[in-house]
Amino acid sequence: MNSERIVCPVDRTLNLISKKWSIQIIRDMFFGKKHFKEFKEDKPKLSNKVLSNCLKELEENGLIEKRVLNTTPVTTEYYLTEYGKSMNRIVYELAMFTLDNNDRSYSEETKKELKNNFKQTLKIDD
């Protein structure tokens, strides 16, 4: 008999990205953000401490890579790993959930533009 403890794959994935702001940071990285201050630009409630902890956890989970550049002053950049890039479908489906479920916050034209933008940026093939 197999004594391996089975953990639901959904639970395992959520453990990687369950911290508040994690999925938004991953989304931002797909859209080109890579510097600490860039992640905060449209998130006024995101504190430096929380962002720092979130980036550290995403790095520990292998989703992002931190690169310290030998510049003056020293520059730190964050990049999605291949593992992190594989979350493209998750980010896409989260966006599509809202856009496809009669959310009236967006005009039909805006929905179409957003869908195309997410599809291109996240490299989603039909």
Explain this structure.
- The structure is a single chain.
- The chain is mainly alpha-helical.
- It is 53% helix and 10% strand.
- The protein contains seven helices and two strands.
- The protein has helices at residues 9-17, 22-30, 36-40, 48-60, 82-85, 88-100, 108-121; strands spanning 64-69, 75-80.
- A two-stranded antiparallel sheet has the order 1-2.
- β1 (64-69) and β2 form a beta hairpin.
- α6 (88-100) runs antiparallel to α7.
- The longest helix has 14 residues, at 108-121.
- The protein is globular and about 45 Å long.
- The termini are far apart.
- The mean pLDDT is 92.
Task: Output mean pLDDT.
Answer: 92
The general outline is globular
Determine the strand fraction and express it as a percent band.
5-15%
Bin the helical content. Answer: 40-55%
